[in-house]
Amino acid sequence: MKNFTNIGCFLIGWNKDILKDCGEASYRQYRKLLSAISIMMIMWGTIGYCFADRYINIESFALKVCISVAFMFIILCIERVIILNVGKARMMATMRFSMAICMAILGSCIFDQIIFRNDIQQTIQENREDIIKKTVLKRMSIFENDERRISHEIDSLNNATIALGEELMKRPSIKSVNVSTAEQVAGVDENGNPKKVKVRNTEVVNIPNPLTEQLKSNNSQIEIYQNQLEQLRQDKKNIAEKVTKEISVRPLGFIEELEATLSVVSNSWISLTFYIVLFLFLTFMELFVLTIKMGENKCDYELVVESQLNLKKNLMKQTTESLIVNNNKQQQN
After folding, report:
1. Distance (Å, whole) CA 220 – CA 128
2. Neighbours of 13 (CB within 10 A)
3. Rounded Cα–Cα distance for residues 26 and 24 (Å)
4. Closest residue by Cα to residue 281 from 104, 34, 37
5. Rounded distance between C-alpha atoms, residue 323 and residue 109, angstroms
6. 3-state class (DSSP) for residue 299
7. Closest to 286 measured CA to CA, from 130, 16, 74, 64
8. How many helices (H) and strands (E) does the chain have?
9. Which residues of the chain are under the pLDDT cut of 70?
């Protein structure tokens, strides 16, 4: 029993040496605070475990337990701030009440997502079907624009190719003039040396029309565009299946599930009533420690702590006054 009391004092921040000299009222206050803080730690440990499992996507049981313990430690520290306050702090009480509202909203949302799981999953499925329809229409529009663009390019190249073909039929080859210069001996000079002169030769030959290469290039580009167009049409056929698969395998997000939860809660007065009851329940649970601490009747443990504080204040005040008096006497002397 003594060890249990020591653990309880450690949790709520009380001094076990002061408590053992107190009466039954202090022990009852101690049990109330310990019960309230234990309930809060268990509740927020559960919330932390569910949060780690559903939204952080942690698969390890040990890590889930670590997150749960972290939530319990946070709520323990928050409640100890209230418990260890000496006297009544109105501002702190107001802040704790505001925090209780926020924590109750968070807790009720997480619990509702567990309780209304089937309804929420159905709503999420309906929402994702709407997203799939919008995404398919958007991508279909992109595919159609690309298809029109490529078809336009193919038509333009076809027209150009037809014109080139007609031109090649008229002139499959063109004449090319080759000019060359050569030296010939035209006799000898007065010294008997050969006398050379430059002779210009002109040759006209038929060569393939250069438009033939352009025609081959156009045909090659048309083939590329046709392959792209065929691929677009194949992708267009499978777009609904592809988008459905992409969105269906997407991990469930907290905001997505929260929106579905709000939709489920707001669409039925029964679910809305249940949510309000759960919210109020969690709010009152959050205010357990605060209401116990802010009660009008103080136990002797709190009176002892306040008495020690007042005693220290008076002692410091007397010491300060004594130092001032001694200082004044020294100045007069």
Report:
1. 43
2. 16
3. 5
4. 104
5. 60
6. coil
7. 74
8. 12, 2
9. 1, 86-89, 173-180, 182-207, 209, 295-296, 331-333
At residue 229, the pLDDT reads: 83
Task: Report the SS3 class of residue 180.
Answer: strand
What pLDDT, in 10s, does the model give residues 46-97? 888 888 887 777 888 899 999 999 999 988 888 888 777 766 667 777 787 7
Q: How far is CA 200 from CA 133, 140, 150, 268, in A?
A: 78, 68, 53, 104
Picking from 2, 289, 69, the residue whose alpha carbon sits closest to that of residue 10 is: 2
Extract the tokens encoding 26: 């202090």
Which DSSP letter does residue 116 get?
Answer: T
User: What are the sequence ranges of the domains in the chain?
Assistant: 1-130+252-310
Buried-exposed string 239-256: b where 16+ CB fall within 10 A, e elsewhere? beeebeeeeeeeeeeeeb
Which amino acid would we find at residue 263?
S
Are 65 and 71 in contact by the 8 Å Cβ rule? The answer is no
Closest CA to 80 of 11, 144, 29: 11
Query: Around Cβ 103, how many Cβ atoms within 10 Å?
Result: 21
Output the six-digit token pair for 145: 């624009």
165, 215 in Cβ contact below 8 A? yes
Residues in the chain, total:
333
4-35 pLDDT, tens digit per residue, is 888 888 888 888 888 888 888 888 888 888 88
CA neighbor of 125 nearest in space, from 38, 2, 244: 244
What's at 163, amino acid-wise? A
Sign of CA dihedral 326, 327, 328, 329: positive
